[in-house]
Amino acid sequence: MLRNGYGNSWSASQLKIESSETRRLREEYSNAAFTGFIGKSPEILRVLNLAEKAAQVQSTVLICGESGTGKEVIAEGIHLAGERALGPMIKVNCSAIPETLLESELFGHEKGAFTGAIKNKLGKFELADKGTIFLDEIGEMDIRMQCKLLRVLQNKTFDRVGGENSICVDVRIIAATNQDMVSLIAKGEFRADLYYRLNVIPIYLPSLVQRKTDILLLAEHFLHKYAKVFNKSFSGFSEEAMRLLLQYNWPGNVRELQNIVERAVVLTDHSRIEASDLEFDSYNRIEKSKPNPIYQSIVQGELLTLEEYEKQIITAALDRFGSYTAAGKALGITHKTVAAKAQKYGINFEREARV
Ligand SMILES: Nc1ncnc2c1ncn2[C@@H]1O[C@H](COP(=O)(O)OP(=O)(O)OP(=O)(O)O)[C@@H](O)[C@H]1O
């Protein structure tokens, strides 16, 4: 007879059944681990290959990439494809929890440790025992907490807030960030020693525009998904709709694409998604239509008269192109008009040498 950590006793035959059932479940999880992660571009195949390798070991993984690129999906896949799949996966968004609460959130606290600590509380690390802890937005973690996390990585133990005994847990750490960690380190906002401890297996998730070949594949995937959810039926996207999807710059990456397709599925009355059904996020449309500093100065700064803007444009074009003819060609006016405007605005330009 054997006893597990909870004091239950198992006979040898039960253990055998358990282990074959466990093996079956683990295989099932492992086979399904990355199936929801859509993409066939070489960049994504590289990510999947790396993530599958990471799942086979216990090393710490740091997943970097812009918001909405699928960092959390990859972290879940690594957990499910590995030997901890049947254990818990505990997620902590390090930026969403106020600094003062994060320590007790991660490491737990003892009753009476601080005002309001009316009973013992298990921290996320204890809850993740035999499983994985996913530390999202790690770049936002307060610098004092970084020091405490480093200690956990070094010693594999920690103390509950107000606790006296060190606690040892068996947890695999996967961290993620959408920040440029190297520049955070350069600014002194992230500890280099913690970064190196976390960055044992780095996985970089490319933005959607860096893997344009996945856009239509993802769009089709979400179309099927939401058609099923909302019990509708579609024949696909029109040519024009596909062209728009490919042209857009996707600042919100896959999350934004998912939202736009969901919105189109819900709101359209067509049996095919048309360009007019695709409502791009207005915030991003503004970002996109903010082409240059002149736009910014008009929107946010001191407004100049139209003539003053014209003077700046003519001056800049002459500086850039070096002649009335070339500047006029670029601006779509004749060289005579450029010369006249230069004279009108008193722009100092040596006509003779540079017509
Ligand atoms: N390759 C993909 N295939 C299918 N769905 C995806 C893919 N990538 C992302 N998604 C979906 O997009 C949404 C955002 O993904 P996720 O939360 O993993 O991004 P993230 O990089 O962790 O974002 P953030 O940095 O903002 O936390 C989720 O709903 C996820 O299911």
TrEMBL record:
CDD domains: AAA. One of its GO terms (biological process) is regulation of DNA-templated transcription. SMART domains: AAA. SUPFAM superfamilies: Homeodomain-like (SSF46689), P-loop containing nucleoside triphosphate hydrolases (SSF52540). This is HTH-type transcriptional regulatory protein TyrR. Residues 37-266 form the Sigma-54 factor interaction domain. One of its GO terms (molecular function) is DNA binding. PANTHER family: TRANSCRIPTIONAL REGULATORY PROTEIN (PTHR32071). It comes from the Bacteria. The keyword Cell membrane does not apply. The keyword Nucleus does not apply. It comes from Selenobaculum gibii. Keywords: Aromatic hydrocarbons catabolism, ATP-binding, DNA-binding, Nucleotide-binding, Transcription, Transcription regulation. PROSITE patterns: SIGMA54_INTERACT_1, SIGMA54_INTERACT_2, SIGMA54_INTERACT_3, SIGMA54_INTERACT_4.
